[in-house]
Amino acid sequence: MDVTGHRKRSASLHDVATAAGVSCRTVSRVINGHPGVRPATRERVLAAVTGLDFRRSATALAPARGRRVPQRLTVDLADSEGPVLHGANGALYGLSDDGVPSDAVLAPLKITTITQKPEGGAQHPNGDALTVAASFFRNGGGEIYVLLQDVHAAWPYEDLGIDDYLPRVDAVVREVAARADRDRFVHVPFNEPDQIWYHLDVADRAEYEAGRDRFLRDWKTVCRRIRAIDPDARIAGPNEAAFHARLLTDFLAFARREDVLPQVVTWHELDSSSLRDFQAHYDAYRAIERDLGIAPLTVGIDEYANRRDLSVPGQLVQWVSMFERNKVYANQAYWDAAGDLSGNVARGGVPNGGWWFFRWYAGLTGDTVRVTPPQPHTVDTLQGLACLDPARRQAQVLLGGSAGDADVVVRNVPPAVFGRTVVATVAEAAWSGYEGAHPAPRVLARTRVRVAGDGSVTVPLRGLRRMSAYRIVLTPAGRGTPAPVPVPWSASYEAQDAAVTGGRVRTQGTVSDPNGYAASGTKTVGSLDSLSSKVDFTVSVPADGGYDLAILYGNGSGGPATQRLSVDGGAPVTVVCPSTQNRAHTGRKDLRVELSAGPHVLTLAKGDGEVTLDRLDLTARTGAPSAVYEATLADVGGEPSYDYSSSAGAGTGALSLRGGDRAVFDVYAPRDGYFAVVARASAAVELALHGETVTAEPGRPLRLYLAAGNNRLTVTAGHARVRSLDVSGDGSAAGTLSYGAADAALTGGARLVECVHARGGRRVTGLGNGPSGTARFTVDAPRAGRHLLVVHYAHDDRRDNGHAYNTDIVSRTADITVGARDPLRVTFKNTWSPDDFWTLAVPVDLEEGHNTIAFGNADGAAPDIARIELGRVVG
To answer: Which of the residues in the chain have pLDDT under 70?
Structure first.
């Protein structure tokens, strides 16, 4: 396969042969389907050709006859759109509490705006703007939009008249105005006035004008009231539920005349058609401004996307690309539970596929550049965004939204920045469900590519998956060749295509059902609630060995549910599927199976409770999980330089750190435990994690304790070239301290109860609700130092506010006291049921020998605790 699209076949065979470590003749034999090639060699060649898995690579290498012409997405590095804004990464009610979601998943995203309710507002049980401000701002957040009408309890808001509303507005504005950081809040006086209170979306002109005139009077009254309290207050509006040129024209003309223009003009884009129509809406809005003589105002789309879009990288890239192209701010909608960044964070600090897409988006630097997709302004098609950063000598392309094949053509590659040869690195962020953990995105290919005579580079992508997003990074190619990318065999199997007994196939998350939940292939198999219910998946694997099996499922049964897994009718094993928000809110269960080469039938049959099945993923297990985190793609501080003199190893060069510089890596761990971390550097570096700092010698593994989910590791050095952090392991528990519920000394209302779902069979309940309800563990630390305290907890606290489309869960807090130190208040997110135990990791310092760790909450209920574990950060 010709990687560049401009080179002779013999040259491309050489590139593939070099990457795969075989001869050109072997590559040719694979392409021509010669039967005499060993399977392992064939797989290695196919992975080198496209960087995709065996199944998709085979399709990519099929003869051209009968194949559709690949789509073409063109990037023009010479056509700048201006500095990257990162404006489309916000969320409505994305934060619920201080600590939910965790700092480790907030900080990497560089979120510019969020929308929350006023402090103490009755609309929802959490998500108060001032409560979440501390965590938002300490993690680099930009501005908080305060949705003033969410002081009301009813939905739609109870209309008690403007005289009733004004005192509520006064209280909110005064509280914000008293803060030192008041300039980081934006007041939104009205929410969806075209539908609520004023009914401005009607066709009848007389009815519209009556509602319009009342709305404009009230807008002026509220704006002047806000500015009477805080003359520098920033205001956003009119905040329509949908774009209405008629209302915006009347509103802006009135607001300009009466001197009550907002600083931010807001409306919502909440339908699949927005992917087609937003550009026309935006252009029409700017035309209205010009016609009225109004200088361009900031635009904020403070609600966007449907349930089917949230958490899905391939959907999100379509939305984000159009907002970033137009340099507008945008917040994802709030359809379900607060505190998960609109469906992009599982549990409290665990990334899913959507989170990784936004992490990529946050990593764009320099200027965005013109991207021409195959079908502009068309729903559910291949779209993308791209950037060029001459200072870092990087170009990045994010794309997705369509299945099949595509050629990404990058034009006008500047030779002064990249030279005549580049390294193209391709990675995939897949859909892992709303609640399914996603490891660091897999690198599919890393290839040296010669820039063509016309200044272009073509990167062929084959077998794209519609729900995935892809990142292409171009960096200068130095000496040497990037190491081959080990891409294991994998395959996916849809539940709706399997043999279903005693179940029903449901379609959801389509263009015609945009607020249906996302599902792989837009279908799931549910109603598996009879004793005979089962789904038989016919699979085929290329070799004997161990395979990682991922089950995408939903469980809204109110507690852990089980399936019985059998292979080819053999003895079943019980698979426990933790609760998800509801039966359509997909999670992911990972386990391992041993299979012989060839076809098999994997059966999932009903156990306890009801599980909805979406898809199975099988991936060849080639060893302990590992990932390479390139230094040139890390977050940086100071003024490090980028060195691309060598393409060996990871292939993307090295980051040169000196005093005052730092590189921050986002490292994923599948579970709490010890992992091997290796710094690929030219000299010793300092590595900081969870408040502990350790010296990392070049190439020498460190045994570090990581928390399940994302971990931020900071590297500094006096002078060192850092190529990557390499992380491997399954999360060893060797050397950790573990204490069950029965080990705790209990006081007050705290008591020990039996629990079949808790490890050890018992849990502590009744903690808190006053100063006397405590649990105290005595732990014996072999060495003093910084540890991670991992709490296995559960609770299902809810406050139903009567909104059918929201899941009004609330968090609980506990005060954790270590020895004689001051207590630390920690927030524990709801676990969907009282019998589902999650973990939360808290850094603590222990003395050598005996230490006491006490849990309590004088102000309310604390979560139930099944056990605690402690691992020294540096093992």
So the answer is: 1-67
